[in-house]
Task: inverse folding
């Protein structure tokens, strides 16, 4: 208990009147991180559920781990494939770790820095929301995104997508997706095309080499958007060295793409945890896939080119569809909040994502725009769901008045 | 056969310390305190002075807006003190109780021979009108208004709640008289809700009431939930609500001609060594039943009522007016759990699935276990709120005090107690019952 004693000893400095009072939110954040606060209830219920905001966020972070760890491995896997070297599992993983870790650090330092400063200014407790956002941002970006871009995008997203609205719980748009959208529209050459998805350079002196002949870093969806093939049967997905990609490559995640989005299997593991703990809504996840399936099936019927002919399973395995459905659409703050609303919200995300993918070759990946679009409409969906309840209540009065 | 309604949403918090169904005797204390704050919605005006001699049933104070609404003294004795707080608000009236209580005589009465107004004035005069509450606003019923219906709950599902079957043993006649009296107070019906497990004949075979059986977890025993399922309150309507225990007290007035505010109280909670039932009048000092009967060496929280809606009292506190339960749990101050967010400790209880679920009774303390946040998680309140109302939206409308929205979303149907479980499960740790209470009070001010 010596740590506890030390905290108790320095605590008065951070309380009102202490010389470090201007850091009280920061102190509180670290203290509550270490120990559950022993404040007891003043009004209302005398007992409380053990789940708090920290618990919720930690579950999401754990759920993200399989996708993140596999993503790191895949960064190394794609790199050594590109430079034509055969190395062991751990070398690939460490290469990826060294590439991605700085990005996570930058996003956390910038984002948490702003969050702490804002909490301090508002004399509030530091909210845990950014712990998830901070890890999501590097996971949905191409691995070659420069660190300064991540810093700028994170700062922009945290300030203009979250803090101006009042902080965690009040934002309209998913903060991580705003960071990505900011980069997507500000630095399109670094966010799309076939140069950014595979890290070809060395990381901290690791993995030096030149790319092999015939290298192409386009993502499968990028290939589909630019293909000349007239039908899907004539088209085949290629890996970065021209090797054909199988469905199992796509499922396990041996494809180029954003760090965390490649492995459907790893995302599925995260989804299982989110659903089992009831932290993520299965209704939202399920209905995103339902919406996607519905749209793809419909488009397949009237297919006129390769993209329109592509069956639904490819849509689900490629790009950010699964990741968006599991980790982005289920963000409770920006999603519809009513249960009925979640069905509509998820369905429309799936529908719009597939529509953008198929009909707009400029944006091979539609998930980001689709979720941001539906974030804006989530309050409207809730409005109509709640309005039905209100109408029912009004009707009750009318019926009564008529009886009189 | 009674109608049966099954409640699916809700939560039975598995707390340790349920009261053993044993009667452990009567408790009296030298001083009895009556606290006007217990009676929500009234403005107390004193009817006694210090050193006045009173009998049980004599008025201690009355409501400023209804000078005929008296509040009875539960015991006979001498008024020793009137303790006032800020702005001279009356905190409590202290009475030094006689050893043998002398009851003021109100005369035995036959319900069948009485008119509505005679019953009303009998209850008002006897000082026990406060047992009848009303919706909207969850306040002491306004006697000037005629209620659409009267709802009585015949069971309590709150954590560690006392068994009405056990308490009402031997009070069947009083109970029936109470129902007969209530049925004359409304042009509508008297609805009695019982649990599927209710065995007491006075409840199960009650006459002059419409019986509904409820099945399911807490808050199935909350009268608000029952109203919402049976016949919801609309804007402009008033219904009255009571607990069956209070109906028996009203019945006693007519059967015996006296005001006997004796309650059978369950002593519960994980920190009580010997749980059980005690008889005492409201306002009785509780020091003697805690003595040598609670865990020693740690700070404790004493509650008059249940752990969700009860009132925090001191070790030498007293029984509040509506309570038939006393709970003692650990306070938890000074407990510093490390890395609570990562904890897999079997002592932490959560209604959700972020902690392992064990089949055991938990010993929970009064810690909030987290910091206050904005509402983040969705569908949390809905899980424990079995009314046809969107709780989150209603809470938000109440915080913003948007009267139109509050009305539309059903503010007239709810009481703070209906939100107790929402407050328990809330990961954002908001004081929801306080929010609703404040909202209801402000709304009433605007409307009346």
Result:
């Amino acid at each position: 208990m010596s740590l506890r004693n030390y905290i108790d000893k320095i605590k008065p400095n951070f309380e009102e009147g202490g010389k470090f009072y201007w850091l009280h939110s920061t102190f509180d954040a670290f203290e509550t991180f270490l120990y559950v606060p022993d404040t007891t209830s003043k009004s209302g219920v005398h007992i409380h559920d053990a789940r708090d905001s920290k618990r919720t966020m930690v579950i999401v972070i754990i759920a993200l781990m399989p996708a993140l760890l596999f993503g790191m491995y895949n960064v190394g896997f794609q790199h050594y494939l590109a430079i034509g070297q055969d190395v062991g599992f751990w070398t690939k993983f460490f290469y990826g770790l060294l590439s991605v870790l700085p990005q996570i650090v930058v996003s956390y330092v910038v984002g948490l820095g702003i969050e702490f400063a804002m909490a301090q200014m508002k004399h509030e407790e530091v909210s845990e929301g950014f712990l998830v956002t901070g890890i999501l941002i590097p996971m949905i970006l191409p691995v070659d995104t420069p660190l300064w871009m991540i810093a700028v995008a994170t700062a922009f997203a945290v300030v203009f997508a979250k803090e101006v609205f009042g902080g965690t719980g009040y934002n309209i748009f998913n903060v991580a997706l705003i960071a990505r959208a900011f980069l997507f529209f500000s630095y399109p050459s670094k966010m799309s095309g076939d140069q950014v998805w595979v890290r070809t350079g060395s990381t901290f002196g690791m993995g030096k080499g030149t790319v092999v002949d015939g290298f192409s870093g386009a993502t499968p969806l990028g290939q589909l958007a630019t293909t000349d093939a007239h039908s899907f049967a004539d088209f085949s997905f290629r890996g970065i060295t021209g090797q054909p990609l199988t469905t199992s490559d796509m499922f396990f995640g041996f494809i180029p793409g954003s760090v965390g989005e490649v492995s459907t299997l790893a995302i599925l593991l995260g989804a299982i945890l989110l659903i089992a703990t009831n932290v993520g809504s299965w209704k939202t996840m399920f209905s995103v896939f339902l919406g996607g399936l519905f749209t793809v099936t419909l488009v397949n019927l009237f297919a006129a080119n390769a993209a329109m002919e592509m069956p639904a399973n490819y849509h689900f395995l490629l790009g950010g569809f699964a990741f968006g459905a599991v980790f982005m659409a289920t963000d409770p703050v920006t999603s519809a909040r009513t249960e009925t609303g979640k069905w509509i919200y998820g369905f429309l995300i799936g529908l719009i994502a597939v529509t953008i993918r198929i009909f707009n070759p400029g944006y091979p990946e539609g998930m980001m725009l689709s979720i941001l679009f539906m974030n804006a409409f989530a309050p409207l969906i809730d409005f109509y769901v709640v309005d039905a309840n209100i109408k029912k209540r009004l009707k009750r009065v009318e019926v009564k008045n008529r009886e009189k | 056969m009674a109608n049966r309604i099954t409640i699916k949403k809700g939560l039975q918090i598995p707390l340790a310390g349920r009261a053993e169904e044993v009667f452990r005797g009567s408790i009296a204390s030298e001083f009895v305190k009556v606290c006007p704050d217990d009676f929500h919605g009234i403005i107390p005006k004193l009817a006694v002075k210090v050193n006045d001699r009173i009998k049980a049933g004599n008025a201690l104070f009355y409501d400023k807006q209804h000078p005929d609404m008296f509040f009875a003294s539960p015991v006979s004795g001498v008024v020793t003190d009137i303790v006032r707080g800020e702005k001279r608000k009356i905190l409590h009236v202290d009475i030094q109780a006689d050893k043998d209580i002398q009851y003021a005589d109100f005369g035995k009465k036959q319900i069948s021979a009485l008119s509505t107004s005679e019953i009303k004035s009998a209850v008002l005069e006897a000082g026990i009108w406060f047992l009848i509450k009303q919706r909207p606003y969850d306040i002491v019923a306004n006697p000037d208004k005629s209620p659409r219906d009267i709802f009585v709950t015949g069971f309590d599902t709150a954590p560690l709640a006392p068994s009405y079957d056990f308490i009402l043993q031997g009070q069947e006649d009083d109970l029936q008289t109470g129902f007969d009296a209530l049925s004359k107070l409304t042009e509508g019906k008297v609805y009695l809700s019982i649990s599927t497990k209710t065995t007491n004949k006075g409840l199960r075979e009650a006459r002059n009431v419409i019986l509904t059986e409820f099945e399911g977890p807490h808050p199935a025993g909350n009268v608000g939930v029952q109203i919402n399922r049976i016949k919801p309150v609309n804007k402009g309507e008033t219904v009255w609500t009571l607990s069956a225990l209070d109906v028996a007290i009203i019945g006693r007035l007519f059967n015996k001609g006296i005001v006997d505010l004796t309650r059978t109280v369950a002593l519960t909670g994980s920190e009580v060594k010997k749980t059980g039932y005690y008889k005492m009048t409201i306002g009785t000092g509780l020091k003697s039943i805690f003595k040598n009967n609670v865990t020693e060496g740690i700070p404790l929280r004493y509650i008059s009522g249940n752990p969700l809606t009860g009132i925090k009292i001191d070790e030498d506190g007293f029984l509040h007016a509506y309570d038939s339960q006393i709970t003692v749990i650990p306070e938890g101050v000074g407990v510093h759990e490390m890395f609570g967010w990562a904890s897999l400790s079997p002592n932490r209880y959560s209604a959700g699935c972020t902690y392992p679920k064990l089949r055991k009774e938990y010993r929970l303390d009064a810690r909030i276990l987290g910091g206050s946040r904005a509402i983040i998680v969705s569908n949390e309140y809905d899980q424990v709120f079995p009314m046809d109302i969107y709780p989150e939206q209603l809470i938000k409308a109440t915080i913003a005090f948007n009267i139109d929205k509050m009305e539309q979303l059903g503010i007239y149907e709810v009481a703070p107690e209906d939100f107790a479980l929402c407050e328990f499960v809330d990961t954002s740790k908001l004081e929801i019952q306080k929010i609703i209470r404040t909202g209801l009070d402000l709304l009433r001010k605007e409307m009346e």
Remarks:
- Chain B has two domains: 3-256, 382-447.
- DSSP finds eleven helices and 20 strands in chain B.
